[in-house]
Design brief:
Layout (H helix, E strand, L loop, with lengths): L1 E2 L7 E3 L2 E3 L11 E4 L6 E2 L2 E3 L2 E3 L8 E4 L2 E2 L2 E3 L2 E3 L11 E3 L9 E3 L2 E3 L5 E5 L4 E4 L2 E3 L6 E7 L3 E4 L2 E3 L5 E5 L11 E3 L2 E4 L4 E3 L5 E3 L2 E4 L8 E4 L7 E3 L2 E3 L6 E4 L6 E3 L2 E3 L2
Parallel strand pairs: 1-4, 2-6, 3-7, 4-8, 5-9, 6-10, 7-11, 8-12, 10-13, 11-14, 12-15, 13-16, 14-17, 15-18, 16-19, 17-20, 18-21, 19-22, 20-23, 21-24, 22-25, 23-26, 24-27, 25-28, 26-29, 27-30, 28-31, 29-32
Length: 260
């Protein structure tokens, strides 16, 4: 499905998409692609079934001038070949992605979940379920210059990876995301924070091995002014919450930490 430039208010509901590489050269299940002067707005992608056989890199992308896209109640299965640099659902890459909502989707046996990139802002990743996650850099990766919310997601798996990653690999100045009410169960760190002024609160983080980086890790010279509060952390690791390498002026408050 390509939702090209200048599309307003269209809905894509109840479709089943399998192995897109056999019907196009692009490999993407969905592209929402606005551009300067031809904005996409209020596109809805809902209740669809997306199936990959893992034979090629394929993804669902929102990029360019795309405003208020909703991706909800879809199922994604078998995306084992999603690239770390892109992700299964990818927001950004070019300027202009605003107000994307990714809510109540189910991901099963997929290598990557959601990556937020470029200058994407005002994003919401909420109430999604990720099960049997396959090894990658992170399941949810916020790496843009804009702030957003990551709330109420469930992430479970037995392979080593980060659950939620807040970073700024492009030096965009990312900061200010709210990470709240998520439930993460993985062998290694539930959350890596490499940026500033984020709020990490009321999550449940279960680390199932003694990997040792920290169930919550805040690290780097630009990691300033974060609030880590009211989380429940269960871990056999030596560090439940770890600050290192210049992570200054952060507040750690009212968390409950137990040995798993």
């Amino acid at each position: 499905l390509e939702i090209a430039q200048g599309v307003y208010g269209s809905r894509f509901v109840g479709n089943t998409l399998r192995r897109p590489g056999q019907i196009s050269d692009y490999g993407n299940h969905v592209d929402v692609a606005g551009s300067l002067g031809q904005v996409n707005r209020d596109v809805v992608i809902e209740g669809n079934v997306f199936i990959s056989d893992g034979l090629r890199v394929d993804t669902c992308a929102v990029f360019g001038m795309a405003y208020d896209t909703i991706i909800s109640n879809n199922t994604f299965t078998g995306f084992t070949n999603a690239a770390n640099s892109v992700g299964l659902i990818f927001l950004g890459g070019t300027v202009g992605v605003r107000g994307t909502v990714i809510v109540s989707n189910t991901f099963t046996g997929c290598r990557f979940g959601v990556r937020v990139n470029g200058d994407t802002t005002d994003f919401l990743v909420q109430g999604n379920t990720f099960t049997d996650v396959q090894q990658s850099d992170a399941v949810i990766w916020a790496d843009s210059s804009g702030a957003g919310r990551i709330e109420g997601n469930i992430i479970t798996g037995s392979q080593p990876m980060v659950g939620i990653l807040l970073s700024d690999t492009g030096n965009f100045g990312h900061a200010g995301t709210i990470v709240a009410g998520n439930h993460v169960t993985l062998p290694v760190s539930s959350l890596f924070c490499l940026t500033s002024n984020n709020v990490i609160t009321n999550n449940v983080f279960n680390e199932t091995t003694t990997e040792g980086s920290g169930t919550i890790l805040l690290t780097g010279a630009n990691v300033l002014g974060n609030l880590v509060a009211g989380n429940i952390i269960n871990t056999p690791s030596p560090w439940a919450i770890r600050l290192s390498t210049g992570a200054n002026f952060n507040t750690i408050s009212n968390n409950v930490i137990s040995s798993a």
